[in-house]
Write a structure and sequence with these properties.
The protein is an alpha/beta fold. The chain is built from 13 helices and 14 strands. β7 (202-207), α8 (210-222) and β8 form a beta-alpha-beta unit. It binds S-adenosylmethionine. The site of S-adenosylmethionine (SAM) has 25 residues, from β7. S-adenosylmethionine (SAM) binds next to β7.
């Protein structure tokens, strides 16, 4: 770590080496007034050396925390509190200590005070834009390489065809606020709803297979519902469901995020039910069915809000069928603008895991490529 020799004296340099300015991803709960008072004290210094001294003092104060039962680091917080990511806060302090001029240090302190005191959010999520650096977990690139499925709590990989919880997790954090409503029209075993419940959002799922509905609702119930939200999977055909009526059961008229993870046509046959999209007679039938679901569900989505469609392509008789792009075109006919096409790496299915060599051989012989990606199309309702 390089540090400005001009500004730190010998004692401070030793302190800098001793004190951890990196921090972990844990959240610290602090008394807001006390923190702002310490930041103000530093801002009132007239020399950079005394300002740095104050930062060291502040950093030492931040070591007096105790972890509470939820693993949050609590610094005797009472009264009006603020929760801050430790890594972010320490990073901001390190930046100030590494700064060479008084003006610049004061500017960073001003920015930090604003981040602590003011909540600046936009209309579609709860992310505090004054503390955007804190959200290291938020993916902003269009290529998602997710190494490992989140298997925490009740999340399981054993429902064939479920998506990794990180997908709904990212979408929910980016495109909803706490207490808002999410609709997933192909709920499967309830991955979206489990994530929604964890994040303090309400959610409704539609799923065709009664057995799967039961599994999903049991999983949702067995997770702690800290925010006391409503999260339920309802049995039904997402082409036929009266979404307005379903929402009125929960005294709602609309949802603020739509998520769809349909069958990728016939790649996985989910049931023998002819209403199941995996039993569509042809690609065109599949697209017509999708179009009906999108039309109907989009009626209950608020204007200006988002729709995440998760889908992959398929091969048929040696031909690559761009199912993702074909479905995207159908959605664009339904009053949406395209906001992003995210490409996400694809986990190997259980079936193919032990047949890597065989598939490589087939790919080389047949001149094709093995699917390793799927899409998350992001749309905004006009
Ligand atoms: C790809 S899976 C979704 C998995 C889900 N994202 C999860 O993580 O569990 C597609 C689901 O859509 C369901 N499905 C197929 N056709 C349907 C229809 N017409 N109405 C409602 N659900 C349907 C299937 O039974 C299957 O569970």
């Amino acid at each position: 770590m390089t540090i400005s020799k001009q500004t730190l004296n010998k004692k401070q340099k030793m302190l800098f080496e001793e004190i951890d300015f990196v921090g972990s991803d844990k959240m610290i709960i602090l008394n807001k007034a006390k923190l702002l008072e310490l930041i103000d004290e530093a801002r009132n210094q007239t020399s950079i050396v005394s300002l740095h001294d104050k930062i060291f003092e502040l950093r030492r104060y931040l070591s007096t925390f105790k972890a509470d039962t939820k693993g949050l680091l609590n610094i005797g917080a009472n009264g009006d509190t603020v929760q801050i990511n430790q890594k972010y806060l320490f990073g901001e302090l390190r930046q100030i200590v590494e700064t060479r001029t008084l003006d610049r240090s004061k500017y960073y302190l001003h920015r930090l005070a604003k981040a602590v005191a003011e909540q600046k959010t936009n209309k579609i999520n709860d992310l505090n834009l004054n503390r955007w650096k804190e959200y290291e977990d938020i993916i902003t690139d269009s290529l998602w390489i997710l190494e490992k499925r989140d298997s925490s709590g009740v999340h399981k990989a054993d429902y064939w065809g479920n998506f990794v919880p990180q997908i709904p997790n990212q979408l929910i954090k980016r495109y909803t606020k706490k207490g808002e409503w999410i609709l997933d029209t192909f709920a499967g075993c309830g991955t979206t709803l489990i994530e929604a419940q964890r994040l303090g959002r309400n959610s409704l799922g539609i799923e065709l297979q009664p057995k799967v509905v039961e599994i999903a609702n049991n999983l949702i119930k067995s997770e702690q519902n800290n925010f006391e939200t409503a999260n339920e999977v309802i049995e039904g055909d997402s082409k036929e469901v009266d979404y307005k009526e379903v929402l009125t059961r929960y005294r709602q008229n609309s949802v603020q995020l739509l998520i769809m993870h349909p069958p990728y046509f016939d790649i996985i046959k989910f049931s023998n039910d002819p209403r199941d999209l995996s039993n569509a007679g042809s690609v065109n039938d599949f697209l017509s069915m999708m179009s009906v679901v999108v039309h109907k569900a989009s009626e209950v989505l608020d204007k200006g809000r988002y729709f995440g469609l998760v889908i992959g392509d398929k091969y048929s008789k040696g031909e690559w069928i761009p199912l993702g792009f074909l479905t995207m075109q159908e959605v664009l006919k339904c009053g949406f603008t395209l906001k992003s096409i995210i490409v996400k790496n694809f986990e190997e299915t259980f079936g193919k895991r032990n047949q890597k060599d065989l598939w490589r051989y087939r790919a080389i012989v047949g001149g094709f490529y093995i699917f390793k990606h799927e899409y998350i199309f992001l749309f905004k309702k006009k």
